[in-house]
Amino acid sequence: MDLKMKTIFSLTFKSASRDPFLMLWSLLLPIGGSIGLGIFIKSPEYPQHILTGMMAASILFYAFMTTSFAILTQRRRGVYNLLRATPMSLWKYVCSISGAWTLISLLCAILILLSGIIVLKLNISIPAFLALIPILILAALSYVFFSFFIASLSRTENNISILTNIITMPLLFSSSAFYSLKSAPEFIQIISRFNPFQWFVNGLRSAFDLTWASYLTNMGLLLLMVIAALIVALKTFRYADV
Prior knowledge:
The chain is 80% helix and 0% strand.
């Protein structure tokens, strides 16, 4: 990473870490939901189940929804027009700000995990904790890169809100993040198999359980998502609304 990329990374991280939406949607609600549901639902498996679901939802809300609004705001302020006047290549800029947003997403997920370990008294081994990190990073990167595409389709905050909700709601409801799909209709279970968010959830749970075959499969699927999302982000990037 060169000096310009480090500077953009640092400035983006400092600015994004003060975002009030970050505290609400990616920290307070997931932590409260994890602890509340984990305590009151009397099932030995549910605390870990809901914790992984909340970690995944936190990443989705911040790395996809919040960053889509941030990208639109920067474009409307003319930040990307200034980028044209600099020798910095587009991919370096996109990777720099995406890296900062991914790091924030990762830190949020780790804080949610720590709250579950402390309050819900979950046991997690060091190998399991280390296995969680790559899954969280890959998922966050894929959502951040995809948010550039969503922002490129939008001219207003209303457009962003509609598009992100149209995408995130089906992703959440056709996954087993918060409930089991064993009794769901067959077509929902089929959709779930092709749901990228379900791959993320499966990756987190396989990391917890140290089931390596499932872990590597889901990590490979997420890696493909990252590559595809980056290509789409660069190909559809808009410097201005005109």
